[in-house]
Amino acid sequence: MSPSPNALSEDARSGSRSEGGRYTHHQGKFFSHWLTLRSRDESAIARALSVARVDMNPHQVDAALFALKSPVEAGVLLADEVGLGKTIEAGLVLAQLWAQRRRRMLLVVPATLRKQWSQELLDKFQLPTTILESRSYAERCKAGDANPFDVDDAIAITSYEFAANKAADLARVPWDLVVLDEAHKLRNLYKGKSDAKRASALNDALRGRKKVLLTATPFQNSLMELYGLVSFISDEFFGSQQAFQMQYASGRHSEARLNDLRHRLKPICHRTLRRQVQAEGGINFTKRFSITQDFTPSDDEFELYEQVSAYLQDPSILAIKPAARHLITLVVRKILASSTFAIADTLDAIIERLQANQALTARMLQDFETVDEVGDELEAPDPSSTDMPGSEALQAELFCRNLEIERLSGYRDLARRIQSNRKGDALLLVLDRAFAMTENLGGRRKAVIFTESKRTQEYLRDLLEANGYAGRTVLLNGSNDDADSKALYADWMARHAGTALMSGSRTADMKAAVVEAFRDQRDILIATEAGGEGINLQFCSLLVNYDLPWNPQRVEQRIGRVHRYGQQSDVVVVNFVNRKNRADQLVFELLEKKFRLFDGVFGASDDILGSIESGVDIEQRILRIYQECRDTARIEAEFAALQAELDDSIARRESEARRTLLEHFDEDVVRNLRSRREGMLLRINQYEGQFLRLIEAECPDARIKDALVELEEGRFAVSWPPAEAANAGLLRPDAGLGAELVQSAAQRETPAGVLHFDYAAVDAQRADVREWLGARGQLRVGIVTIDTANEQLQSLVCSARSDDGRVLSDETAARLMEVPARYAPARRVADAPPLLAFEAAVQRVLDDAAERNQAWFLQESERLDRWAEDQRLLLKQRVDALDAQIREAKRTLRQLETLEEKARLKREIKRMEQQRDDAMLDFYQSRKAIDLQQDAMLDRVEALLRIQHRVDILFDVEWTLEHTQS
């Protein structure tokens, strides 16, 4: 909605507009600099918020200010609980840096989230982005770009995989900021390069760059994962990995140790809880309700399930490589539970591999699109070689192989004979009831159906199209190569040709086209796991789990597509329960009752999910039950044991560490959030007021009413709500017409003269200004620019004194500039003399900067002291361990009876004492090295904080404050 930069009329560009409005050119210059100050305080965020299409919530502002606050931290970890809008928090940070013309910014996200981030940054913050993936990267290279990542006219967005592959390119760019979404993907960094190749590659490429990491789960299984994430931000934040493990991650966590760690994390980690936000009153989270639909498989369906299940339980089968057995068995079981149509194609694939004397690998199961991701989660090997292990021996066992092919062919033929699935029939039964419930709760008649199989997805589309939903369904998967999707994509491309909505990535644009069709034209979206990841479907409030994942965290991610921050309606979740399969029933009970995934207020399930160690571990445990249990009694016993373990885990909350570190509920936080809301509303109003006054100063003919501005160039607003409500253009100080107005005002000639302020024309009472009615004096406005090694900050200084020697406070002098005035030329040629009050105000700005920097220096000094203590502690541990061994040996010596034994042990003690002495020497030498390294780090921090400043005088004038009658 931003106007063209060429929209400003020729009069404005030439600076020839007359000075005849309520505000003078001097005031216009004051307002223009106020609107474009480089700062990291609430005023700066208010400017970003006013032009952002988001409803401001104080916890998001709090997080953004936290990320912007420190000039010396290498980055921060924003870890708000799920659903609180981390995208908006990061967007505010990116928008603020963009407004300061710090444009080299990188966003690393899961591949499926690239388009969503691009769209949200454009829609909410009007920030341009470019998605870098194989095709767009190649095109840039072909166009002559030496490094396609080195762009300064858009925010670069790329996936974790592509970023790691192009790590050398990333390393060559002097990034102003790198934002990493779903940053828990990096938490295994501590495992080293062999076990964390992607995280290590990115860590090496981005070392030394300012980073913002976004994740709701900084650690899940171990505190070492938290160490890994913090080390990605800075490998100098903690001491060595061994020192961290010794202090915090070995054995049970003591309250004192966790509180100590929490104190250390405070400068780098920010987390807000949903219950804090609810207590503040900013967000009313919607509820979720569940519908459970029973179904009973037909005899043929049940027979097929039993036969394939028995096959998978057979340890002697030849089709699956032993190294890949765990992963493939999991995937095939998922496909088996999905539909007979899906398992028929899978059985064909297995048969083909056996006939070719080649084993099946997980990557060949293309019907299950997330197989690679599941394999990564399980850390299951899936060797690239597809030859059968021991192929010569297998040739000799041709008879056994042929028997297995015959066996599988029988299962496949049975699957082909089954023409309808009872679960599909149950879907038809439940949809009308679910739609009615959704509409009663205020939602739209739209449903998203999730399945884990592409073949099942096709079956469901055919089923629905043939039973009352013709032309009302749309598919979303990893490829979308069906005819309907291609047509939707072509139509979308034609309608949006040449707009910022097009990313250049077919995958991202296809997903955008499908979601748009679902939102505007179709009633039912049938999505696979891969297709549905990262999409925002909050315009829909009905979700159907046609297939139910065993990992509770994956289930919550699915539901999070609709039940998320910004959802206006209560959500309905539909699940199916197989009444002939006791294991399936128990899985559903586990997810429903233990994890509370399907009922309750927004995010209630996360309290439970946060207490379990890993959804992947639960998934593997459930797979073991399916594989090993042959009868109902054993299945029930195993699920009862799993439930008991989860009960213990939830009650004991191994996440006691998580709660102590990250989930501490503090009433002061709620009070601070309420105060932040009040402060931000005030700042936003102040920003909008200053911008409107600037427009009056620059455009005397402007008509301003109800927050809308009528100019020769059109109708505009200076914040998004009135702009959107009136379908007006949006003025912003850093782009288009707004930027031209700001620049024009900043460059105005402002000669000495007299500003006659008229208190009768003020739009709101200013008691502090009113006290100076009838006074006159001198006024100076200037800019103080403070430069440090890696940033520039500015303060606008306004000082005034009266002719009788009294000095106005800085705040009152600034508020005086907001009073309508008229300008009169100077009655005398000489400039007004320099104001002592101005020099004092400049010194206060410098003193404030020095005080802030001193606080940062002390904080960094404390952190480096702890870093050095970590290093020394590890060194001393070795000495203490040897001392303990020596003491134990001496006790043993006294108990020995023979001279020979005593002599042998005495020699061993001497050897240990020599080792201890060597370790002591090494300890003291290493301490010196640590001290030198710490001094070098402190010198670097001091250099970063060392400031230089300059003062630019904008204008000197005389002033009077009058109260004329209109």
UniProtKB/TrEMBL annotation:
PROSITE patterns (UniProt xref) = HELICASE_ATP_BIND_1, HELICASE_CTER
Q: Which key words are in the record?
A: ATP-binding, Coiled coil, Helicase, Hydrolase, Nucleotide-binding
Q: Where is the composition biased (Basic and acidic residues)?
A: 10-22
SMART domains, per the entry: DEXDc, HELICc
Signal peptide coordinates: none
The answer to whether keyword Hydrolase applies is yes
Ranges for domain Helicase ATP-binding come to: 67-236
Q: Which InterPro entries match?
A: DEXDc_RapA, Helicase_ATP-bd, Helicase_C-like, P-loop_NTPase, SNF2-like_sf, SNF2/RAD54-like_C, SNF2_N
Q: By its UniProt entry, which CDD domains does this protein fall under?
A: DEXDc_RapA, SF2_C_SNF
The record places domain Helicase C-terminal at 430-609
Top-rank lineage group of the source organism:
Bacteria
Q: Which Gene3D superfamilies match?
A: P-loop containing nucleotide triphosphate hydrolases, Tandem AAA-ATPase domain
A Pfam family in this protein? SNF2-rel_dom
Region annotation (Disordered) maps to 1-24
What name goes with this protein?
SNF2-related protein
Source species of the chain:
Lysobacter hankyongensis
